């Protein structure tokens, strides 16, 4: 039977676990950047670093799509026609904290001498059009706001769409997840050219597919734990191996970061495999033990704040740990210590009046 909607206030247990896991995954992804990025260029120092980055970072590439699917699973289709209430809630919980932390990333580095007053001025001007140099992770919020803006358009169709209709949409979307690989072979495709990037499948591509996929899973997929582990685990492993192997091979040939990170694109078929596999497995989590789920539930509510602040603490963790351990141990320690510090700081901030304007 088709499920037409979920009350956004209703507690969906596995989503609490998913948010924390996805948040940790994002931090682990960024912990790897010290070993392959040098400014805007490739900064891989040796083959060992390239190997460990491909192994570790590739494993966590489904982090952002999982976040997107968590939002869609709970919100879509929007209840009723009152989009004004929907946008007001998103503005308070998402946009205001996003603006505050954008300003903090632009200004605060002046306090410890990382930037000059001229840099601060330049950073603030940059914020009028895009995220700043010190807050690259905030690209995700721009994308998320765009998805929120489209949800009122998408919702009426989801209410009426049949299972077959959803499958056809997802099939076309899945075709687009091969786009960047196909372009390596044949170049521009289906109307794409230098004066028109809006090719035939443009409007079916991107993160919108994850919105529909989450809705489809919630509505039509209720597999047993065994089936979820079998199918989900297989897809995750296949997607992970492709992601890691392609990345590692390109560490020897790529000359630019965008070439190196080809298989890491969030809307590529291999990451879709990983995301779908992880999601259907995590969906089976129902454990609500007293102390564990209590902690998970609290951290789930703080996950947006953790995401917003973690870049500040990531560099601090690396400066303390970097150079003292092997590459994989350093990545793990930086990720775990940053995540732990962010959880503590977000919890402390939550006690402040008006904390929702800081951490959502």
Automatic annotation (TrEMBL):
Ranges in coiled-coil conformation: none
Entry keyword set: Acyltransferase, Cell membrane, Membrane, Transferase, Transmembrane, Transmembrane helix
Query: What membrane topology does the annotation report for this chain?
Result: Multi-pass membrane protein
Q: Where in the cell is it found?
A: Cell membrane
For this chain, the family text in UniProt reads:
Belongs to the acyltransferase 3 family.
Q: What is the protein's name according to its record?
A: Surface polysaccharide O-acyltransferase-like enzyme
- For whether the record's keyword set contains Membrane, the answer is yes
Transmembrane stretches, start-end: 12-31, 95-118, 138-158, 165-181, 201-217, 229-250, 262-282, 302-321, 327-349
Domain of life of the organism in this record? Bacteria
């Amino acid at each position: 039977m088709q499920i037409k909607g979920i009350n956004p206030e209703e507690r969906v247990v596995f989503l609490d676990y998913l948010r924390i896991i996805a948040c940790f995954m994002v931090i682990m992804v960024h912990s790897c950047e010290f070993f392959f990025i040098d400014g805007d260029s490739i900064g891989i120092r040796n083959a060992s670093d390239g190997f460990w980055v491909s192994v570790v970072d590739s494993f966590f590439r489904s982090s952002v799509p999982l976040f997107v699917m968590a939002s869609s699973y709970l919100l879509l289709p929007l209840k009723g026609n009152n989009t004004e209430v929907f946008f007001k809630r998103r503005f308070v919980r998402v946009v205001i904290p996003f603006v505050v932390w954008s300003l903090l990333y632009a200004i605060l580095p002046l306090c410890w001498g990382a930037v000059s007053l001229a840099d601060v001025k330049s950073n603030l001007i940059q914020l009028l059009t895009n995220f700043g140099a010190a807050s690259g992770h905030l690209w995700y919020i721009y994308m998320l706001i765009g998805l929120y803006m489209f949800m009122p358009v998408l919702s009426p169709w989801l209410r009426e769409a049949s299972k077959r209709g959803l499958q056809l949409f997802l099939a076309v979307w899945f075709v687009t997840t091969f786009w960047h690989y196909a372009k390596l072979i044949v170049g521009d495709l289906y109307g794409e050219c230098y004066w028109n990037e809006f090719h035939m499948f443009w409007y079916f591509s991107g993160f919108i597919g994850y919105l529909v996929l989450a809705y489809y899973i919630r509505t039509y997929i209720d597999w047993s734990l065994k089936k979820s582990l079998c199918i989900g685990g297989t897809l995750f492993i296949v997607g992970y191996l492709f992601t890691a192997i392609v990345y590692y091979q390109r560490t020897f040939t790529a000359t630019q970061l965008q070439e190196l990170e080809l298989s890491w694109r969030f809307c590529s078929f291999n990451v879709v495999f990983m995301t779908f596999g992880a999601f259907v497995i995590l969906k089976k989590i129902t454990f609500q033990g007293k102390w564990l789920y209590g902690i998970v539930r609290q951290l789930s509510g703080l996950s947006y704040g953790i995401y917003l602040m973690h870049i500040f603490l990531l560099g601090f963790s690396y400066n303390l740990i970097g150079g003292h351990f092997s590459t994989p141990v350093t990545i793990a320690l930086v990720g775990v210590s940053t995540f732990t510090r962010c959880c503590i700081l977000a919890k402390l901030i939550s006690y402040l009046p008006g904390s929702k304007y800081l951490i959502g």
